[in-house]
Amino acid sequence: MRKSKAVAVVMAAASTAVFAAACGSSNSSGGGSSVDWSKVTHLTASGPDSMANLVKDAEKEGQLNVITLPSNWANYGNIMKDFTAKYHIHITDAIPEGSSGQELQAVQTEKGQSRAPDVVDVGTAFAIEGAQKGYWAPYEVQSWKDIPGDAKDANGDYYADYGGYVAIGYNPAKVKVPPTSFKSLLNPAYKNMIAINGSPTSAGAAFAAVYAAALANGGSYSNITPGIQFFAKLKKIGNFVPTATGGPTTVQNGTTPILIWWDYLLASEVKPVVPGFKIVIPSDASFASYYDQAISATAPDPAAARLWEEYLYSTTGQNLWLAGYARPIELSTLVSNGTVDKSAYDSLPPAPSGGLTFPTEAQDNTAESAVTADWAKDLG
Amino acid sequence: MAESMIEVAAPEARASGARPGPVARGIRASLRWAGVLPFGAYIALGLIAPTIAIAIAAFQDSNTGATTFSNIDAALHGEYFIGLRTSIELSVLTAIVPGIFGLLIAYAIFTAKRGVVLRRVVITASGVFANFGGVPLALVFIATISTTGVVTGWIEEVFNGFDIWDHGFSLYTAFGVFFVYMYFQIPLMVLVIFPALEGLRPSWREAAQNMGAGTWQYWRYVGGPVLFPSFLGCLLLLFGGAFSAYATAEALTGGTIALTPIQIGSLLNGNVIAGQENLGYALGLIMIVIIAIVMILYTILQRRAARWLR
Fold this sequence. Notes:
- The structure holds two protein chains of two kinds.
- Chain A is of the alpha+beta class.
- Chain A has helices at 2-23, 51-61, 76-87, 100-109, 124-132, 204-216, 225-236, 249-252, 263-270, 302-312, 315-323, 331-337, 342-346, 361-379, and strands at 63-67, 90-94, 119-122, 136-137, 159-170, 194-196, 258-262, 278-280, 288-296, 327-328.
- Chain A has two domains: 37-163 and 289-346, D-Maltodextrin-Binding Protein, domain 2, CATH 3.40.190.10; 164-287 and 356-379, D-Maltodextrin-Binding Protein, domain 2 (3-Layer(aba) Sandwich), CATH 3.40.190.
- Helix content of chain A is 40%, strand content 13%.
- In chain A, helix 2 packs across helix 10 (302-312).
- Chain A is elongated.
- The termini of chain A are far apart.
- Chain B is mostly helical.
- In chain B, helix 6 packs parallel to helix 11 and helix 12 crosses helix 13.
- Chain B is flat, with a radius of gyration of 26 Å.
- Classes of the chains: A alpha+beta, B mainly alpha.
- At the A-B interface, helix 5, helix 6 and helix 14 of A face helix 4, helix 6, helix 11 and helix 12 of B.
């Protein structure tokens, strides 16, 4: 009895070791570097924190947990496939259709589990919330300097990945006079034609459309009210159709041949189903919004998480996003270096001149309150 | 305790044969209760626990978690108060109007001669229509009767270019929402009022006629009073349905009319407003209170109606 028990213990220990080795736990001793990647904030050209070492340890982890990445969104399906093919790292994508809020919840509730998210792709408000709660591990990818200053956290907690501009999309078969700006939308010829994608009190794209309209009508990041008034006027003259059935449906069926949305979503979701569809960034407002990447501070696969970021911000990763019509944050560098995927780049409307700017969190909050308070009041 | 009782009691129950002792009766009683246990658990987990959670969260600060009354306060002022008022107004209207239509339709098919097939068809169709809603319903109406809709075009053709949209009709207003809600509210009314109509015994009418009562008198003194509590009860049900409906109104109006369920959606699920979840819970609690009042009224009315329908 005693003997067999001892054997069982040994066997259990052995199988644990085998299991651990099979799982490629980063702190097991067999052959990997001794780097604790969860503490690494940037790579160095040589030494233990080098790219070569990162690749080796990430491959040893063999596993990466991402969350809420739809395969048809921003080309993520191909991006994940290419990453796995390149590094032999298996990717588990939890709740592909989930929201930014659910990503934050998962980081919190699955903390310490092997299936917890390693990396997230969230809206900026949620990136900030996560940073305030200490969810993110600061990390600066090798091309950090190519990310515009306004688009990254100074501490390296989060950094913009891809996004786009508020744009006007229209079906030229029904819209005879091409719209060029927000002001041009007041043309009576557009009666019952113009929609935004959702309610600005709940849909980010619709909120951005109102913000952009504010910029076009004497407002600013601190003052969204002219945008609300613009849409109230648009509704009063009968041009604005406040339906919020979402996406291409009402453009496709002809109810609203003009849709104000993100340029990259107009290009990826409406253009393929509406022949001849045109997209223009309004000449009187450039309003951009980008999603953010962040690495979980409690990532179960810290090396793979960092390798994923390096991959996304490589020329390959950036161009893959572009192929999915999302504007990668380092696009201007790709263009000036001549490394941009030309055909993908040409399918998007040209970006407005001038650097990227974003509302601050405080400005954003003020705008949210104004829209919440006045949208129904002024448009009802 | 319950387990040991069964162990001890079982042989005794067998031994005493046909006459169950007090213990056996106890078992039967507890078995009877055991039957409702799954439902009880379902109610506890699906209704009571979330209600308590919402009630607690309604009094917590979204960021600090401290106890506060400010959520409730905010929920009863400004745009949220307007939202509650509009929701209640719209729900009352979308209860009464379809309620009357539904009653008339139900009565028509109830009194139709040789109407068995008709009755079955209408009831089945009502069951289908009453459950159709959400964004698909909004899209159906947009495809049918929006500015470019099929029916709009048809009316324009038949009536010499008469465009209903140029004459005050709109789908994207409170009226539009009301109009679309009729689509499921009328069939729902037909479904729920029908059993009450069946409770009107033909013999009552015959008795009234034998005593010389005319149609008006029959309805004034017999049919009306019997039916009225059920009718009001059904209206309350319609009110509850309209009050909590969300997706259709959101899809039609894009938030341009303030409705409480849409506001809750913006606060809890939206991608715009962050960090005000507990205000959403406060609005939810207020809705629960309103629905609770409605349900209590409904129960009282049902009890009155049941006296006659036994």
